[in-house]
Amino acid sequence: MNASEHAIDTIHQEHRSLGMVLHTLQALLNKVAANHAVADFGLFAAALYYIDCFPERCHHPREEEHLFKAMHLRSAESAAVLDRLQADHGRSALTLSHLHRALVHYQGGAPDGLEHFRAAVDGYAADMREHMACEEALMQHAQTVLTGDDWARIAAAFAANDDPLFGRNQRLAFTRLYQRIMMMAPRKMKSALRAAESLPYPPL
Ligand SMILES: [Fe+2]
Ligand SMILES: [Fe+2]
Asked: How far is the CA of 68 from the centre of ligand 1 (A)?
């Protein structure tokens, strides 16, 4: 793999992981709403923790600092898309704080807790899927305008295995957290999740 393929593959895999966590959360909430499963607040909390730590504190900042910055330099025509993607990042942090409040409201026993939490998750998931699709298109364009050195810097940034929150084994910690969330899904959902995991991107 060359540097551009490596960088794109890493970002792509990170999008897939976030997509699968959101899919798991939504699928379980749909089952709870239909009385086909009980609420698993441990899984809900683990999924929000993953979203908070991985895309919000690690993936988005690296995109802004490396991919978006390089595209600003090389592609004036991408300015509007880059502004939109950057604004999405700012908004998703606010939406996530709303998700946390909605989970506490639900776990506290509010009668409308499930309805509010589910609506908040669905809204965040829809925004993120649109955002990731836009970034996937941006990366296609980036292949035609970025240089080999640009891609080498982006690939190195995304391969970096340290993070203030997770320390030196950040990637391993995220992988373990992701696997834990998948393991926590109800047994009846697991085969559907495994099938979704193996589909080509975008899977959900
Ligand atoms: Fe992003
Ligand atoms: Fe992204």
From this structure: 9
Output the CA 135–ligand 2 centroid distance in Å: 6
Name the token pair of 108: 């506290």
Tokens coding 45: 């909390």
- The pLDDT tens digits of the residues spanning 60-83 come to 999 999 999 999 999 999 999 999
Residues with CB under 5 A from ligand 1 (ion): 60, 63
CATH class given for the domain over 3-197: mainly alpha
Amino acid (one-letter) located at 29? L
Q: What is the pTM of this model?
A: 0.88
- Could you state, in order of their start, the residue ranges of all structural domains in the chain? 3-197
| Ligand 1 mean position, distance from CA 33 (Å) | 30
d(CA 33, CA 23): 15
